[in-house]
């Protein structure tokens, strides 16, 4: 193996470890609570040393910040993709479908954490930075175009929030991820009505994998 190949392999391994830390921390924060989970317990969950954990993240706040920054970055990629294309009913349908597909993967787990840890989330995330609501506003504009009646704008914004709202509604129930996703997708379809065609949405097996945005490879 050449030196370049060794560096590439090391980076890939480091990226994989970072993702595993994020997943383990998110599960522990959601199950036990953010304040009740320590960095030591995250390391033990993964079977790594605290030194290895601190190499990637210096605090619990850093883990949460990285999760939300990555989620917002993925939303921005979807919105930038749509902004470069002419506005059509088909584009509106695909944009909503991509947004919901993203919410069905890492977004769903992040929303479950957020619903259970409001105070910790406010502490960990810096103020004054654009968040999900700003992305929802931009997405609604790209989906509907200018001069759309207020009621239609609200319907689309609610459709974009369907997974988030269903996570909140499911608190205190026995709803599993599949139940939340099925209900959220049904709600999104009902909300858009005849505004544009219903989006093609991922099935449960597809949504278990982090999707590469379809069509980005070839434009």
TrEMBL record:
Protein name: TetR family transcriptional regulator
The keyword DNA-binding appears for this protein: yes
PANTHER family named among the record's database cross-references: HTH-TYPE TRANSCRIPTIONAL REGULATOR PKSA, HTH-TYPE TRANSCRIPTIONAL REGULATOR RUTR
Keyword DNA-binding (UniProt): yes
Keywords, ordered alphabetically: DNA-binding
Residues of the HTH tetR-type domain: 15-75
Species whose genome carries this gene: Planotetraspora mira
DNA-binding region(s) from the entry: 38-57
């Amino acid at each position: 193996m050449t030196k370049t190949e060794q560096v590439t392999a090391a980076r890939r391994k480091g990226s994989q470890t970072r993702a595993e830390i994020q997943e383990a921390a998110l599960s522990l924060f959601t199950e036990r609570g953010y304040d009740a989970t320590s960095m030591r317990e995250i390391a033990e969950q993964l079977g790594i040393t605290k030194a290895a954990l601190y190499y990637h993240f210096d605090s619990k706040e850093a883990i949460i910040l990285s999760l939300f920054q990555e989620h917002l970055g993925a939303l921005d990629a979807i919105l930038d993709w749509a902004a470069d294309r002419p506005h059509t009913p088909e584009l509106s349908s695909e944009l909503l479908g991509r947004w919901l597909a993203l919410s069905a993967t890492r977004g769903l787990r992040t929303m479950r954490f957020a619903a259970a840890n409001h105070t910790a989330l406010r502490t960990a995330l810096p103020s004054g930075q654009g968040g999900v609501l700003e992305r929802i506003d931009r997405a609604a504009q790209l989906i509907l175009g200018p001069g759309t009646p207020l009621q239609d704008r609200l319907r689309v914004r609610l459709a974009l929030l369907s997974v988030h709202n269903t996570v909140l509604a499911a608190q205190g129930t026995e709803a599993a991820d599949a139940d939340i996703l099925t209900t959220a997708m049904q709600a999104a379809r009902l909300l858009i009505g005849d505004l544009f065609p219903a989006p093609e949405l991922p099935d449960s097996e597809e949504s278990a994998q982090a999707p590469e945005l379809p069509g980005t490879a070839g434009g």
